[in-house]
Specification:
Blueprint (H helix, E strand, L loop, with lengths): L5 E2 L14 H6 L6 H9 L6 E5 L5 H6 L5 E6 L2 H5 L7 E5 L12 E7 L7 H11 E12 L6 H14 L9 H4 L10 E2 L6 E2 L2 E2 L1 H8 L3 H10 L3 H12 L6 E2 L2 E9 L1
Helix pairs in contact: 6-10
């Protein structure tokens, strides 16, 4: 179990699409590459404190812990934090990103993994300016729909952009836009080109798809199971439940305070 989360502020409303299945969501997320954490550490003069905003199950926080003396993983979801992996260098804190329980000028790097589009960005940016040291790096990233092979990709594209299209929350438009038009008021720096590429079975893929926010909204609105509707067509394109390379391209915005 993770460190006990500290309730440091009253919890305001936030976009919460994952608390109801936090353990499943964290189990089936693709892992970020180690090269990302090495690059982040290389951008910092000091390695005393890293802040992972909207940490969820702590995936990025765990990666940062190999490179920083202390990592603070902040999330507004108690359920997500309860599913986070424990680590001796990580403090998991229950708090809103708009009211961070950190001292001013104490953070060397800030990460926001697959979450910046959900946040109240003007307020969060103001709070990051407060807690970060001058020159600290802020890095946010998202990832696109995966690619596997032409047959599977065609099935998933129809599912993603067809059946699920009405059910994606509007904030997901920033992910589809590769974060390119998302307001980011920091002195931007060049970022590496990175991707995730796990080897998954068809069942692994279906389990991951079942955690999508649009799938959950589709099922609640229609009373039908989107993944069950997808499975026969996916099985036709991927008949043997062997392992395939799943490639997730990553998009970054990074800049200095």
């Amino acid at each position: 179990m993770p460190s006990t989360a500290r309730l440091s502020c009253s919890m305001a409303n936030f976009y919460d699409h994952f608390s109801g299945h936090a353990e499943l969501y964290n189990r089936h997320r693709p892992l970020y590459p180690e090269q990302l954490y090495e690059w982040l550490a290389g951008q910092c003069e000091r390695h005393e404190c890293a802040l992972d905003v909207a940490t969820g199950g702590g995936q990025a926080a765990i990666g940062l812990a190999d490179h920083f003396e202390r990592v603070v993983g902040v999330d507004a979801s108690r359920q997500q934090l309860s599913a986070a992996r424990a680590h001796g260098r990580i403090d998991y804190v229950l708090a809103n990103a708009e009211a961070l329980p950190l001292k001013s000028g104490s953070v060397d790097v800030v990460t926001v993994a697959q979450a910046l589009h959900w946040l109240d960005r003007p307020e969060v940016y103001e709070e990051l300016r407060r807690v970060a040291r001058i020159g600290a790096l802020v890095c946010a990233w998202s990832y696109q729909l995966f690619q596997i092979d032409p047959e599977v990709d065609a099935v998933m594209d129809r599912f993603y952009r067809g059946r699920l299209d009405p059910y994606w929350p509007p904030q997901r438009a920033h992910v589809r836009d590769h974060y390119a038009t998302l307001t980011f008021p920091f002195a931007e720096v060049e970022t590496p080109e990175l991707a995730m590429h796990p080897e998954w079975t068809r069942d692994d893929l279906l389990a991951q798809v079942s955690t999508w926010s649009a799938v959950r909204r589709h099922d609640a609105a229609t009373g039908t199971n989107a993944v069950a509707l997808l499975e026969p067509e996916l099985t036709e394109a991927w008949p043997a439940d062997d392992r395939k390379r799943v490639v997730w391209s990553m998009n970054f915005r990074a800049g200095r305070i």
